[in-house]
Amino acid sequence: MTHKDINPRTKTIHCGQDRDPFTGASSMPIYQGSTFAQPDPDHPGVYDYGRSGNPTREALESAIAELEGGVRGFAFASGMAAITASLLLLKPGDHVIAAEDIYGGSYRILTTLFKQWGLETSFIDMTRPDLVEAAVRPQTRALFVETPSNPLLKITDLEAMGLIARKHQLLTIIDNTFPTPWLQRPIERGFDIVLHSATKFLGGHSDCVAGLAVTRTDDLARRIKGIQNITGSVLGPQDSWLILRGIRTLAVRMDAQQRSAQAVAEALSSWPGINKVFYPGLAAHPGRELNERQSSGAGAVLSFELKDGFVARQVLSRVKLCLPAVSLGGVESILSYPAKMSHAAMPPEERKLRGITDGLLRLSVGLEDPKDLLEDLLQALHK
Ligand SMILES: *Cc1c(COP(=O)(O)O)cnc(C)c1O
Asked: pTM for the complete prediction?
């Protein structure tokens, strides 16, 4: 039975981490070595130096490649390092079209370092394929998609983006951090590069910062491998092992967290004091049907809008179960304040244009009982 034939749930248990070939150990050993013996320099072994390759890192890289259905995976020191590596496939003078409410760090790197380097970016509302098509220029080389988006959970049509990309020969890059391959596999829909902040749901325990990239083709794999080796922002063996361990429970965690997120989103929708709830599993969400077509769930992140920044800060300071912090995807629920945290790098007027108001809070629903979570939010809102 090849891994190709097995269910993704089974893959999360076995991919990249079948028993250790040398000892039969049930878990991939952490190969904590920076260099590997080369007694015959003309015939080096599989490994020579830790930046270029490490068996524990490679186990994780092959796991994510199999889960995403790509040819090869790469593990980086953070999600931002993986994003940087994919953008380095482009060159000065190129133009990229990115989702308007993209992750704050991606917005920052595109508008600072890559801008200085000569890469131009247009930020477009990708729920509108007509606007994306209209933004294509002769220099456009790539689409940078994120769906569901952050923090407003907007849904972009992957098929429509693929059509535009094929028509104009654009590279398709997607940040798949929120859904994970358990819910959405963009390479199966023709995307070229899938990126992850593995810090979030893949790791799943808020104990490790990591990034991953997967490519659809061997040519892209060869180029990303070169960038990873040259720039050197590789993931260490200990952290690679932690992400591998997290992946083993990905399916059960996501299923449970998603069920709770649905319950929490539905309950919050009827609460006084909450203007709006953004969650693709809600009947009122404009992208709900589209999301159901291209992914197998709405995920475990939602956001909701309170009256203003004062109330939002009050809630943040009063919650007892939810961790008031940046990040998401952990076993514990995390409540964040996008205006000051994930999207602080975005100028206030840009934030406002994108609908990221001062009253907006983002909730990553963890594995607690949803009733306890709602009680916590209720006391924080009405104390
Ligand atoms: C956190 C996050 C990133 C950045 O990842 P790091 O691991 O923090 O570098 C990128 N994209 C999304 C959607 C994220 O949530």
From this structure: 0.96
